[in-house]
Amino acid sequence: MLIVDDLNDWVGAMGGHPNSKTPNIDKLANQGTLFTNAHAPAPLCGPSRASIMTGLAPSTTGIYGHIRDNDIRKVNDKTAHSQFLSEYFKQHGYYTAAVGKVFHEAIVDGSFDDFGGRHKGFGPAPAKNLKWAQAKTSTDWGPFPERDEQMPDFESAHWIANKLKQQHDKPFFMACGFLRPHVPWHVPQKWFDLHPVKDLYLPPYMRDDLQDVPEIARLISDHPMMPTTKWALENGEYRNIVQAYLASVSFVDSMVGIVLDALESSQYANNTAVVLWGDHGYHLGEKDKFAKMTLWERATRTPLIIKPPKQSNKQVSHKPVSLLDLYPTLVKMCGLPENLNNEGQDLTPLLHNPNAPWQHAAITTYGENNHAVKTERYRYIRYEDGSEELYDHQVDKEEWRNVANDPAYQKVKTELAKHLPHVNEKWTKYSAYRSNAYFSQKTKEAGWQETHNK
Length: 454
What we know:
Oligomer: single chain
Helix content: 25-40%
Number of strands: 16
Strand content: 5-15%
Number of domains: 1
Radius of gyration: 21 Å
Shape: globular
Largest sheet: 8 strands, mixed
Distance between the termini: 31 Å
CATH architecture: 3-Layer(aba) Sandwich
């Protein structure tokens, strides 16, 4: 299982950006099923990963913000009695190993047999930020350090590669969590050279994009730690940021290649399933943001590739799926008994036929009772105050026109609303959120204290 932090659709196989260079991820996509309409349970690392690993939706657990990995079990009865994905495989006779960022910080104690560690923070950093001087943020961009060997992801890739060279007398479940392209967008110069600034295309951007969204949408997506597109344009940094993100994606693609090459040359090449996913998407200037943490397409959509053992043919599915579906899907693929606590859908019917009938929607939750419902055609958002957004991707894939108040779409909204979660658990007191004033207040109301994360 290959996990890529903050990866949006800027990979070649998804066609998200014309300047993308990701030969290794593309190769994997050409050998398995690429889900082009996959969405995160939450548009933020901590709650998304907690949801994926427990098989429980954020609205069930109340984990809406970052949480200490070892606090997940303390949240409520559901999490207390859940088995993490790795533990379920371990219970059924698998050897389990992980390295890097798998949960939010690293791993929950005891959730894997072996853990190769996770670098504290997000890699080596220059003595002072190269571009972005805002305090209390990892956001920055530019070439650094000099060599791939200095990057934590290099160590993680080789740790897993070495595990694949070993003799295993049990089936195994291995997870490798890469840090890039999470900020800071620092990778060695050679990756920047792959993407000359003068040749880059900029993402579609409309300056007044947020004028037709509800006030709450602006409040919960306001993250002053990150630059705005307006700032990037006025300061001549937009192309540099796009270059840095593309460079970071190309770098992590090469790390993915190290692992895939090791698997291909190992004795396990023909009996090992491979899954690659990003924990959520990322805005690169769209809607005036360089951030995740919204309920719009750019923040929820992420790559998902599943390659069963021995499969070598490319399949593409445009059906709406959730990363919450990974747990039951991997369990079914490997012939294990169903875990009845899982709230996701088994995707194996789409692995057999990517165009199979599919009545499900993908749900993304950001804070208590704020949800996005994604189908093949529509994105419907309902916020905790009842306000709404609706986008028709058939005519508006950039989500520039909110048609929630258009009477012609009333029936569509009614149908989409049927997918909204019926349970909306209160914010857990173990969940911390400090990069947004609106949600910081919510977590304080839930009983969270500064001492929780010290």
